[in-house]
Structures are given as structure tokens and as C-alpha cells.
Amino acid sequence: MATGNIGKKLQSEITCFVCLEYLVQPVTLDCGHNFCHACIVKHWGQISNGNTCPQCRVAIPRLKLKPNGQLANVVQLIRQLSDQAKQMARTSKTCQGHEPSILSFCRSDLVPFCIHCEESQEHQTHDVISMAQAAEEYKDQFLSCIESLRKEKEVIMQHLSDTDKQSQDLFQLVEAEKKKVMDGFNHLRQFVLEQNTFWLAKVEEAKTDIVLETNNQMAIISKELFVLDYIIQDMVEKCDQPALEFLGNVGSVLERYKKKKKFGNPGVFSPEIKHGIWGLQNFNSFLPDAVKQFEETLESGYQLKKQNENTTLEPDPTQEKRVRLEETCQDP
Hints:
The chain is mainly alpha-helical. The protein is about 65% helix and about 5% strand. The protein contains 9 helices and 6 strands.
């Protein structure tokens, strides 16, 4: 009973609070809780009122994630121990009093059994083949699965490459627009400093959105690659085992492969990010005319003010134009 409780506590410590699965590429938040990298990035991407720990609701600084490599190694070791325990449990059911050469394999239950033991009665109506035939047959299945997984990995690697290229291209667009924004506002620094700050913030917001979207897609792809590598490694190692050990838990390994969902392309960058960049481009195409109009308005207004300076105080006739121009700059 005590051992079972310890096992449950240990499993809870290496389970992600978001996906309720074993931690994959775990990261640690400032509050001390651990989550899958992909899970916490996706969770934060779905909320708009700041980033908080899904478990304790403590506010966490944006993008402040600490990779926990040591915990990742512990999770991997516990996975292996769990698989070994299942394999030993199945192997213990096999007769220890006869030679392995008289063992057969039940296709129906996916287990080896001794034809001279009482357990063989359970398989009389089942599809039974020799150990050698079973080993050869299921090794062929494993090799086919490995080939399929490797092809899927190649597709995912291509998605990874495409995502990185798109990210770099978008960064270049943003940086180019940033230069235009800065050059335009240099002419208005003394008059529209607030506008300068506003549009530079837009640039940084676009860059942050790209970083968040890139991290989200990279995390999803990395997690899928990690799972694929684990299944491939497990199958490759199984293929090198002796027939009895190999067939000991062949069913659970195949079940893990069958249950694995096919990778779905996480997609390209969202239209909102590109619309934000297009907004910067539209503003920069408008800015030269706005600067010229502002300078002309300022010059004419200054001359008119000098003419009336020694007479009477009257409303500045250019004030309305200046207000309209400022409103236009705020809403391109």
C-alpha cells in the first residue's frame, strides 16, 4: 500500500498539469511548478489577461521559462522503468520450467506461452504460431512502422525549416519597417514624440507576436519530434532483443504506435501578425505626406502668429488643422 502511494506521488510530480501526461521538454516557472514547454506556451496563447501559472495562478513574467533538463532525464528514466516493469510482469507469466524452444505465440492475445502448461488451454481456439514465425512477422511490422515514422519525421523537419524561414523573413520585414518609422519620426521628434513612441511600440509588439508564435510552433514541433524519437528508439531497441524478450511486450509497443496521432501541420503565422506588418507598411507610405503637411501647417501657422503677435490675441487658425493631423497619425 505504501509503495503504491509513493508511486502515485512520483507519477504526479512528473505529470504536466495542463495535458495530464508525462512531462515533455519540461520548463520551470518562477513559482516552482513544471509544465511541458508546448503546453504552457499554448496555454498562455489562449488567455489575454496576462500570464499566470495554470496550477497556482501566480503571475509569471512574460516568456520567462526555465528549461529543466534534469527533470527531463528523470521522466525518461521513469518511462524506461515503467516499460521494464510491464515487460517483467508479462515475462513472469511465461513458464520457467521448460525450454524457450517449445514456446508458441498467440496472435489473438499477443503473448508467448508454453504449449505444455495449463495456460496453453486458454489459447486453444486462438490464432497460434511458432515463436520464430512470430518474431519474424512482428519484426517486419516494426520495421514498417519505423520507416513510416521516419518519413513522418522528415515531413515535420521540413515544417520546422519552413517555420524558421518564415520567421526570419517576417523579422526582416519588421526591421525594415522599423527603420522607416524611425526615419519619419526624426522630422517630427519635437512635435510628435508621442507618435514616435506609439509606432515603435507597434514594431516591438509585432516582433513579440512573431516570437510568441514562433515559440508556440517550435514547441509543438519539438514535442512531436521527441515523441517520435522515443517510439523509434523503443522499436529499434526491441528489434535487437532475443525473441522471447522482444515479444514480451510487443502488444503494448504496437498499441503505443497505433494510438499516436498523426502530426497535424500547426500552420503558418496568423493573419493578425501579417496584418500588423501591413499596417506598418501602410503607415510608412502615408508618413512622408503627413510630414510635409505638418511642416507646411506649422510654417504657415507660425507666420500668422507672428503677424498677430503685436495686435490682439486670436485663436490660431492652424490649430484645427494640427489637431486633425495628429488624429490622422494615430489612426492610419
